[in-house]
């Protein structure tokens, strides 16, 4: 039985075990305004890692690979969990770009913020659809989601 998706929650005491880094976070979409690609482009919605962009319990985000390697899982306050799957020409140093479905969501829900993210899992430089799906399909027996990366 497939249950409705819920956000995994780590108790505040558990969160303290993860490194915290202050970053500047902005938002992006798969559209031409963010990527220069229109829906008819063969690489539309495809990240640097090769996975398709998505806003889910574990969403795709862009980061500087020297700071957060591909596959790194971050907890971003006010956004949720992000998995580094993409890069961006303006994303250098301690900057991240969070995926949203629409530009309206980018501006209404996020904009540009300084946030303290938690590094839940350091990536190995690779990410596949299978790995991203696994993160988004974790369910506990009682229907809650479990963060087990």
Automatic annotation (TrEMBL):
Example of a GO MF term: hydrolase activity, hydrolyzing O-glycosyl compounds
GO biological process terms held by the UniProt record: peptidoglycan turnover
A single Gene Ontology CC term: outer membrane
SUPFAM superfamilies on file: Barwin-like endoglucanases
Domain (3D) ranges: 59-120
Pfam families named among the record's database cross-references: 3D
UniProtKB keywords: Signal
InterPro entries hit by this protein: 3D_dom (IPR010611), Resuscitation_pf_RpfB (IPR051933), RlpA-like_sf (IPR036908)
PANTHER family linked: CELL WALL-BINDING PROTEIN YOCH, RESUSCITATION-PROMOTING FACTOR RPFB
Name of the protein in its database record: 3D domain-containing protein
């Amino acid at each position: 039985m497939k249950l409705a998706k819920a956000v995994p929650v780590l108790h505040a005491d558990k969160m303290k075990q993860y490194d915290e880094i202050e970053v500047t976070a902005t938002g992006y979409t798969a559209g031409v305004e963010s990527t220069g690609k229109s829906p008819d482009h063969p690489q539309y919605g495809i990240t640097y890692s090769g996975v398709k962009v998505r806003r889910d319990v574990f969403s795709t985000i862009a980061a500087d690979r020297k700071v957060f390697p591909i596959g790194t899982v971050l907890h971003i306050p006010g956004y949720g969990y992000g998995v580094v799957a993409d890069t961006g020409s303006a994303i250098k140093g301690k900057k991240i770009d969070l995926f949203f479905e629409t530009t309206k969501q980018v501006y209404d829900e996020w904009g540009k913020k300084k946030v303290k993210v938690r590094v839940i899992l350091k990536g190995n430089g690779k990410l596949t659809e299978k790995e991203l799906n696994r993160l988004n399909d974790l369910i506990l027996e009682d229907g809650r989601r479990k963060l087990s990366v």
